[in-house]
Design a protein that fits this description.
heterodimer; A: Helicase, Ruva Protein, domain 3; 2 domains; about 60% helix; flat; B: alpha/beta; two-stranded antiparallel ribbon
Chain lengths: ~140, ~180
Amino acid sequence: MKLTALLSTFLMLLLSFSVFAQKPQIQEPLVFENQQQQDRFDKLTKELRCLVCQNQNLADSDAQLAHDLRREVHTMLLTGASDGEIKQFMVERYGDFVLYRPPVQQNTYLLWLAPLVLLLIGAWVLFSNIRKRASLLVDSENT
Amino acid sequence: MNSRTLPLIAFVLLLVLLVAGLKIADQKTELPSPLLNKPAPAFDLPVLGNPDQRLSKASFLGKPYLVNFWASWCVTCRVEHPVVTELAKRNKLIIIGLNFRDETNDALGWLDQFGDPYDINLRDADGRTSIDFGVYAAPESFLVDPQGMIVFKQLGALTPEIIETEILPRVAAMESGN
């Protein structure tokens, strides 16, 4: 008696998890006119981020939104949109974050230039240290 | 500056960076919408449960309205539902329910079960309009002014605080401006 109650509770609990399930959808394979289109599609979906699972790109993600955005990229490719136009379409809707490679613009100068600045600082520290030590060496030789 | 203070300063700066990074870590998944302060995307959608009737962005111009993206499969939408219901009761603005990536019967059943606070429900079956709005979570809400501009966006569920501090003051300002 107790066991059946326990079992039914467990089953109810399992059942309640089904609310997290997403509606399954049959995804039609995307068909391209030529290999070049397929290559462009592969490249674009690797450079565009899935907004739902933010550390995956559109090519890898199985989220519903990623499916829909892949379909959108596919449709745009077939209607003759350029890679730039497709990226622009995504940026207008989801912002720069959708691009895995951030564009060089006013608010990303720091991001792009920081490695160079750090390299220059490192070089400056290195050379000033070498010079200091060299002069110490000369001083000790003179004495 | 002697050779001991420099590493100490560097360490303190790193510590500041760490603390700042931890502080904003929670907000990192929330993205600023590029659509904010831009015209709301055009839409032309059938009414939920009445596919013969279609409504477009033009039919709502002239009045402030809230576009609330929801779906029957969206758990957070249920949490948000009482908040939307409360807002609807106050009759301050038009609330458009935008049912997306959903089945008509599931959506109508959801409204039957929990109540329908919306002035009108539109059906975006394939989610194309939700892509135009840059929706990537559910629910999401957009406050649109009488000129058709998006003036506020809420990612995730609306709360009573957001209604009081973000939405109603903006609606009041629109009305006094007219």
